[in-house]
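Hallway conversation turned thread

IA: we were arguing at lunch whether anyone had actually written out Geranylgeranyl transferase type-2 subunit alpha end to end. Turns out nobody had. So, for the record, here is the sequence (502 residues) and right after it the structure tokens. Reply here if something looks off.
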Amino acid sequence: MHGRLKVRTTEEEREHKKKEQALKVKAYKAAMQLIMTKRQKQEYDDEMLTASTPILQRNPDVTTLWNIRRECVLEKIKNLKSLTDEQSDGNENESEENSAVTKERKIQQIFEGELNFTEHCLPVNPKSYNIWHHRIWVLENSPQANWQNELALCSSYLKKDERNFHTWDYRRYVAEKAKVPKQKELDFCTEKIKINFSNYSSWHQRSLLLPILYPYEGEAKPKKPMNEEKLKEELEMVLTAAFTDPNDSSAWFYQRWLLGYSRPEMAVCGFRANQEKAVIAFTKPLTSKGLKVTLKSSDKEQELTEWSTVNLGPSDYMLKTTLKAGSDLKIFNYIVVCTPLYTSELLPLKIFHDDIYYFQALVSSTAYTDDVLGELKAHLQMCENLLEYEPDSKWTLLTSALLMRAIDSQTYHSKALNYLKKLQSVDNLRENYYKDLASKWILENALMDWSKTDNIPKQLNLNDLKQLTTLTDPQYLCIADEILLSDNLKERCTALKTFQEI
């Protein structure tokens, strides 16, 4: 009919798209060929920049083109400086100060052009690493970076998607450069969390700011992430978030951080020495470089040197050294351990026959104030209430078990393990994770019991612990003369060594 647009059939549409795609591919190949040829000839000019522009505007993830673009910008600035210097030499009336200002202004215009270009690319893919990295490079090299403008850009993109971790990473960088007060950033995080509890990036940013704003100054170990008053407030806040949507994991993960389930701090967990050798174990791996171990008594000191890793690698949880024969070690009461990043307090030594040793068992629970402990118990009670309605809620089951460990790992030991056992069937894709976590808790409990017996460091009996499927922290066992394991564990832990074997 006259006056109506012809509607293409499916076949016609397919053919039309095919031709369009072929033209795009042809144009892309031609542009890339031009760019690579010019790069080979080291012709970093405006033509190369212009050729890269449409490609990156359609697909900002071509990393090579961003690198080439930076080369072009640097070449333009180099040429500009040379030209400005020549013009300045030819113009005797222009002062050096005016010449420098002119040069800086022109350089700034080049960098601003790059910033504007990235802003045209961002809507295509706001989660492109390359775009954000290019902006950082531009700002690092720009003579007059406008950090307030960058903060506004971050706020704009976080309004569109408050969970975009690329924008959050960039905002952290910008906020540091702009010297934004930490409290203001924390308030910004709170605002975003209130809009959407399911915001991993905002919770993570919160975990970086709180230890700085509200540092913990107590003696409790493991060390708490912040002071107790603020910790109580955060526990209340995360409780609201977690129970708003129990199936969302972001708040549960933040709660785990609040409870201290993160990487342990560097500490000595075991030491033993006899007339021939000494072995020391740490909670985190380290190299032998700079390690100093000093035995101390009231009137005497002896430094142990020339340490090497037990695994013969560059770093290890356990290190060993040989001793000169004839030393009476029993006169020493303490050891002090120094590394480039850690210095211990005086660690008390105990005597076993002619040997001396130190042992610090894994600690799951920590000393909380009554207010915080009451908040943790309230969390646990609410989790238990929720499980009555949703008995198979994996996050609630796991959080309940973690809360039990934080409140009193000894009292709740069996019940927490039962929850992990249930999780193995409820969340069977992570069955082995729960088995390993159960093994970690079983070993922690066994080591705590062992530290209170007369068998330390002679013999550690793990043979009767049927749920123990792996040894998650074998460095704690290095002071034992004998370790009794089940047949299954013997097969899995062939590299395990007793003190006598090290």
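OS: looked through it. The chain has 16 helices and 13 strands.
IA: good, adding that to the notes. The mean pLDDT is 89.
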